């Protein structure tokens, strides 16, 4: 596992090189007639990338007249990058869209990829914690990421269970090695890849807490620049449709989606990805998307997150949530899960 983690940290460039090579093959002869869309992934590769990989593999972006110019994810603010026009589209956190509107950043969500945030705490299994009783966290060392837009989810969860001052909060980076080596007992991340890595590391399942469960805060979104959407509505609409087709395929063919991911990122362990993929997919669809189609969003999708961010002072003045998203570019007819 440590070697696999080292590969994740040190060989992102190799991953991206393989990805771009695969994309060049996938786009084939259609590239000359296609228009370029500059897209950036979110952070390190996960199975959340498979909608894009599938849409490339099966030619769905090409059918929409799109050739993707892809930038790998990393330690930069991809939502800010889209707002500044450096990229046209990305997948990024819903809270960052709200922060952007507070700062007059011209970004808008064109589809919700995670109606509920998969953010949570992943904890060592040897600390006597009870996943059904958050109060057992009292006294443990909890890693926090103060600069993350998801930190407010932890704060609201902590306060809901009267844990403020009862846990030891330690600022950490983005590498779960701090949990594996015992520097912290619990690490904040999505309840998908890191739990799978932890199970591999410890030889038994980690103890996990879904910190956004009670508040139903939003997760990731498809995000574009206001100007790009206004000037290239067909490209945005085509991207969203191709992405939704990729989501549908991955949901209906999870094993094949894992195969596709590992074709592009062979340094990941299959045993980890076979756990991570279905775990992450479970956050792609709520009852709303089951009824309205993939990527559908409305005011109720956004309001709980807005309210929590306001309560904890991350948003200084109220935002009309209807202004941070649009349904204009969703597939019609809808693409169902």
Automatic annotation (TrEMBL):
Q: Where does the UniProt annotation place the signal sequence? A: none
Reaction(s) catalysed by this chain's protein: N(6)-(pyridoxal phosphate)-L-lysyl-[4-amino-5-hydroxymethyl-2-methylpyrimidine phosphate synthase] + L-histidyl-[4-amino-5-hydroxymethyl-2-methylpyrimidine phosphate synthase] + 2 Fe(3+) + 4 H2O = L-lysyl-[4-amino-5-hydroxymethyl-2-methylpyrimidine phosphate synthase] + (2S)-2-amino-5-hydroxy-4-oxopentanoyl-[4-amino-5-hydroxymethyl-2-methylpyrimidine phosphate synthase] + 4-amino-2-methyl-5-(phosphooxymethyl)pyrimidine + 3-oxopropanoate + 2 Fe(2+) + 2 H(+)
Tell me which InterPro entries the record gives: NMT1/THI5 (IPR027939), SsuA/THI5 (IPR015168)
Q: Name the pathway.
A: Cofactor biosynthesis; thiamine diphosphate biosynthesis
An example GO biological process term is: thiamine biosynthetic process
Q: Which UniProt keywords apply?
A: Iron, Metal-binding, Pyridoxal phosphate, Thiamine biosynthesis, Transferase
Protein function: Responsible for the formation of the pyrimidine heterocycle in the thiamine biosynthesis pathway. Catalyzes the formation of hydroxymethylpyrimidine phosphate (HMP-P) from histidine and pyridoxal phosphate (PLP). The protein uses PLP and the active site histidine to form HMP-P, generating an inactive enzyme. The enzyme can only undergo a single turnover, which suggests it is a suicide enzyme.
Domain annotation SsuA/THI5-like: ranges: 50-257
Q: What terms describe the molecular function in GO for this protein?
A: metal ion binding; transferase activity
- SUPFAM superfamilies in the record, alphabetically? Periplasmic binding protein-like II (SSF53850)
The name this protein goes by in its record: Thiamine pyrimidine synthase
Query: Member of which family?
Result: Belongs to the NMT1/THI5 family.
Output the lineage of the source organism.
Answer: unclassified sequences, metagenomes, ecological metagenomes
How it assembles, according to the record, is: Homodimer.
